Amino acid sequence: MSLPDELWRWILELGVNTSCLTYKDLCCISMSCRRLNRLSKEDVLWSKLLSFDFPAHVSSSTDRQSPKSIYQIRFEKDKVKKLLAERRAVLRIESRIHEHTRKLHEIEGQLVDENEKLKAAIDELKGLRRVKEASTALKVWQPEIIHSRQKQIVENCSVPVGFRINALEMEIKLCRQHISGFLRARKDENDRLEAAKERLSKVKYHPLQSFRLDDESRNSRKSTGKNLKRVEHE
Fold first, then answer.
1. Lowest-confidence pick of 119-128, 156-165, 191-200
2. 44: which of 81, 125, 141, 144 is 20 to 30 A away, CA to CA?
C-alpha cells in the first residue's frame, strides 16, 4: 500500500478498461481498506463500467447522481428485467410440459381404445373361423352328434362368413398399423416432454445461468474495450 494514489488509480482504470475488473471486483476491493475504498468509488471507474455494461444509458449533464449510483439503479432495473424474463421463460416451458403431458394422456387413451378394438376383432375372427371350419365339416361324413353340433354353429351365424372374415382381417391389419403409429407418437411426445423438463431444470438453475450471463457480459465488454482502444489510436 506504499504506492501513490496516481498509480493505484492507473491500475484500477487499466483493470476496468481491459475488463479484468468488474463491478463485483470493485466492490470487493472497496472492502479491503479505506484508501482503496475511496479510490474504487471514483466517478471515472464507474462511468466506464456504466458505458460497458449499460451502453444504452445516455448520460446527461443534468444528472445529479454519481455514476456509481446510476450504475446501481440500472443494475437493479436490469436484475428485475432478467428475473421477469426468466419467469416468462419458466412459464412458457411449464406450459409446454402441460401440453406434452396432455398429448401423452390422449395418445394413451387412443392406444387403449385401439387395443380393445383389436382384441374384439381377433375374438370375432376366431369365432368365424370356427364357423367356416364347421361349414366345411358338414360336407363330409361325421357321427350324428358331431354333425348336429357343427350344423348348430353354422345356423347361429347370421353374416356371410367369407366376406366378414376378409373384413376382420383388414380391420386387424389397420388396428395394428394404428397401434404402431400411436407407439411412435408416444415415444416422440415423451422425448419432447423429457427435453422440456431438462430445459426447465436448466432455466431454474440460477448459479450456472448467472455465471453464463456474467461470462457473456465480460466477453462483450472485452470486445467493446478493444473497439475503444482502436478509436483512441486512430
1. 156-165
2. 81
CA pair distance 125, 131, nearest whole angstrom: 10
Residue 19's region, left for phi above 0, alpha for psi from -120 to 50, else beta, is left
User: Which pLDDT value is given to residue 63?
Assistant: 60
Is residue 181 predicted with pLDDT exceeding 90? yes
Asked if residue 95 has pLDDT above 90, the reply is yes
Q: What does the alpha-carbon distance between residue 1 and residue 4 come to, in Å, rounded to a whole number? A: 8
SS3 assignment, position 171: helix
pTM: 0.57
Give 217-222's long-range contacts (Cβ < 8 A, gap of 24+): 217/22, 217/53, 218/19, 218/22, 221/19, 221/52, 221/53, 222/18, 222/19
- Alpha-carbon distance of 83 to 68, in angstroms, equals 22
d(CA 121, CA 167): 10
